Structure formats: C-alpha cells, structure tokens
Amino acid sequence: MTDVTTADEFSTALTHLVPRLFGADWRLSALHRLSGGASKETWAFDATDGGARRRLILRRAPPHANARMGGAELETEAALMRLAGAAGVPSPHVLHVLSEADDLGQGFVMAHVAGETIARKILRDEAFARLRPRLARELGGILARLHAIAVDSLPPLGTVTAAEELAHMRETYRADGQPRPVFEYAFRWLADHAPAEPPPSLVHGDFRLGNFIVDGQGVRAILDWELAHLGDPLRDIGWICTGSWRFGGIDKPVGGFGELSDLVAGYEDAGGARVDLARVKFWEIFGSLRWGVMCLSMLARYERGGDRTIERAMIGRRASETEIDLLRLLLPRS
Fold first, then answer.
1. Regarding the domain delimited by 7-111, which CATH topology (the fold level of the hierarchy) does it fall under?
2. What does the pLDDT look like over 218-249, one tens digit per residue?
3. pTM greater than 0.90
4. Which fold has domain 119-330?
C-alpha cells in the first residue's frame, strides 16, 4: 500500500477521495490535524457541495508505520466500530476503509460526532453537571452491550490472559525501570490472586475518559479500539476505575465522576453477567501497575534518547502516582 509522505501528496490524495465517496461535485475543505494519538493520526475535514456540508474524520497510520504498531490494525478497528454500532454501542459511522487505490495508506473515514472528550471539562464544567451523576450507569449499560457481541462475529483478535500479560509487564519492568518495592509487591500480589480465566469476550482495552465523546445528554461515541482483544470482560470495568483515569477525582471510583455500584447496576440491568467485585479489584490493581510500568517505559525511552519529547519525560514521572494508588489498594489504612 502506498504511503503518502508529504503534506501536498496527502492533501491531493484526500482531494481525489472526496468526490469518489460522495459524488463528482463534492469538494474537500477545512482539513486540519487533531491533537492526541501517539501511534495513529487523526484528521478532521469537510466535504462540501454548494450549501451542503459533511463533517468527517480520517484515522490513519502514520507514513512508513508498521501496520501493527500500537495495537489492532485500522481495518480491524473499523470493523469493530461497525459491529459495536449494530449492537447498540454508541459509535461513529464508518463510511469508508482506505484501499490501495486511495493512496492514503492504512485507515478509515468516519462521520464526525459532536461532543466533548477532554476529561477535565467532563469532570468540572457546568455543561456536564447533570450528566455526571448518571454517567456511570449509562457506561455500564454500554459495556454490557459491548461485551455481549458474539465472539464468532468479530474480526481476528488476539487473546490476552492476565498471566501472560503480567509476565510481559514484568519483563518490561525489569528492562526499563529501577527496582521499586511497591511494584515488586504488586507483581507478587497479582500473581497470588489471579482469578480463573472466564470464557473470552470482546474487551475494548482502553475504556476510560478521553476515549468517549459525550454531550450534556449522554455518551455519543466510544473511540480508540486499537487495544481491543479477547479476554476477561471485567478488565474494562477495572480499567475505568483505575486511579490514573480518575483525573484527580479520586473519591469517585468510576472515572472520577461516578460510583462503582451505579456502573455495576447499569451493566447487570443491561444483561451483563453478575459482576464479581473481587475480580474488579484485581483488574484495578493490575491497571495501576500496568500504567506505572508504561510510565517507566516512556521515561526509559526519553533517557535513552529514543524519544526526547517533554511529553515522555512528564508521563514518566507519573509512575510515582501509581505507587500511591497501589498502596491505597493493597495496604489500606482501615
């Protein structure tokens, strides 16, 4: 598949794609890159025909990127989003999966969804004050529908078990981090308390604030499926409860805005299996340790000169926050 390597080539290829998708009189306008996304590019643009306008999003792999870098292939993400939408999970409408003829690399075009993704605004702005008390229950229902998607309908996905990923995390930690007693204890605790593996279900893999589009009425879309896999569905519940994804709202277990009891009620009321809170705790501890190891890896990349951006250094220092979260979970004061 051809890689577009310059801004002019990219714009020209997208200019040619628009009339092929919507008709000869449609034109490209308002093209700009959106912030965020470490391993994939996200572009916003309009397709216009006189007074008509369609707001669109292109998600694609960067030029020369390995097709598997960062997680699931983009064709797989597009297929999952279509399946999710059909199952009642809020999802952007995927209009087109790029082909070699498009000269844009690997990716897909989807409809723009209006709303907010920035966690700070969702947690603090008055516009979302009425949403916050009911958001956890709504997300529970969404997760139940997501986890109920038939495994045999899914595109090829890897299966991830807790034991396998814990072993991989330990290898990464040994290679990238200085010894940290709290992490050592967490590794031991997780190995000793690993639950039995349930029948594998679809797992989103990064179900948290920042990967939802919401407005004042509710959730409009679930984004960023690149870490989707088959595994324990309660991993998604543990991840949204992980301290690092509460964005300062530490007293609200679900994303800094909601109660676990509401999330569980929404999940079970929507047909999800009965939630084992001990397994949720396991995955919350796992999530804190996982993010801590990821932070150390980013710091190691910065120190070795592989990525000298200030973002990597700043994320690296957040490993200490996960130590506090782990102590709170593993050695509570009361």
1. Phosphorylase Kinase; domain 1 (3.30.200)
2. 999 999 999 999 999 999 999 999 999 999 99
3. yes
4. Aminoglycoside 3'-phosphotransferase; Chain: A, domain 2 (3.90.1200)
